[in-house]
Each structure stands twice: as structure tokens, then as C-alpha cells.
TrEMBL record:
Domain Activator of Hsp90 ATPase homologue 1/2-like C-terminal, residue spans: 28-162
Protein name stated in the entry: SRPBCC domain-containing protein
Family: Belongs to the AHA1 family.
Pfam families in the record: AHSA1
Upper classification of the organism: Bacteria, Pseudomonadati, Pseudomonadota, Betaproteobacteria, Burkholderiales
Gene3D superfamilies: 3.30.530.20
InterPro entries in the cross-refs: ASHA1/2-like_C (IPR013538), START-like_dom_sf (IPR023393)
Amino acid sequence: MKAELQFDFIVDKENSRLTVKREFAGKRQLVWDCHTKAEYLDRWFAPKPLKAKTKHMDFRPGGYWHYAMVMPDGQAFWSRVDYQEVNPIDGYKGLDGFSDETGEVNPTMPRSRWNVSFEDSKAGTLVTTVVQYSSPEDVQKVIDMGMEQGMASTLERLDELLLEIA
């Protein structure tokens, strides 16, 4: 990650919320495409050394993305994002949760509501992701699972992809 690019990871346990702000050296349309198209998501949406693998993608309100983060040994961690609102190149909202290989959301793991916005910045594009959980305990659970480090590593992969495809 380039030092001049903004990365903020803000924990607000009182309101059961995480806010991630990350700047990217790329035009907003391209950064949007990287967040909304499976062929790009599969190239960056997992912390190293994991790889993302899309099973289903339907990016529209009422659609969903079902994917796995796959370890080098083949072990897969499945997730599902149900899209609720889409405002092209400005933002989207969705429900994110851990799932099984069939797409069934795991009720024992925290589920969150994501509000992702995209805006032009000096470096290119600022992406702000507000992740709302049901409780402060859920926030702590994902922090304990390594959410901040995982997000930092994942977003660095997007930096690398943008350099490659820009």
C-alpha cells in the first residue's frame, strides 16, 4: 500500500459499527467495477494468501454474491452478500454473512449490513464502507477474527490489481 493513500479503520462499539475508509489510485468507474464484477472480485477480494472464488454473482437489488475465500490447502470459507440497493458508481448496500457452500447463511456468525460509497478524491477514488452489526459483541467477534488486518491485506490486493488493469 502506498503511504499517501488513506486507510482508516474506525471502531464504534457503542453503535455496533465499523467504518473503513480507503483511497485508491484509480478512477471511480474502475474501482466500482472492481467491487461489483466477479471477474475482478476473484482477483482481489481475500487477504493473502487466500484467493476469492465466485460461485454466483447477480449484482442488482435482490441479487446476491456467493463466494469463498480459499486457503492454499483448498479449505474454503464461504460467504454471501445479498444486495439491497445499487446506485451505479456512487454506492451500494447489502447484507453480508458467513455461509455454507450452498449459500445458506450461518446464523451463529455475525451478519452485517454494508453501506459502501464511492467518491472522487485527489488520489483517485475514496471508498467508505460502513459495516453495521447487531451488537457490540458481534463487532468484537469480527475484530478478534482479524477483520482489520484482513481488510488491510485485501485492499492492498486491490491496489495491485488497479496497477495491473488501469
